[in-house]
Amino acid sequence: MRNADPILKLIENDIISSKLINTFNDIGIDATLYQTDIADIVFDLLKIKEKNRTDSLYTKYYSLINQGKKIDFVEQKEQITEQAQDIQTYLRQFKN
To answer: Could you give the CA distance from residue 28 to residue 30 in angstroms, rounded to a whole number?
Structure first.
């Protein structure tokens, strides 16, 4: 999971924190206060213009992030990076 690309690192961390928050929520602990706004930072770094930052783009981003819930972080660490790369590739189409 070591990655020199700061955008990928942010997305990876969003996947990890989202899994933790969702796990807490699943067992009845309200952890929504710990959600981050990493999406805005990722969108800024990818130079996604405001006009392209629609509700549907945010919904899709968080849907892709939440797919990380299926990843076993102990046994499948490389899948976190793969998921982050897939998300970054998807988002690149919204540049400019």
So the answer is: 6
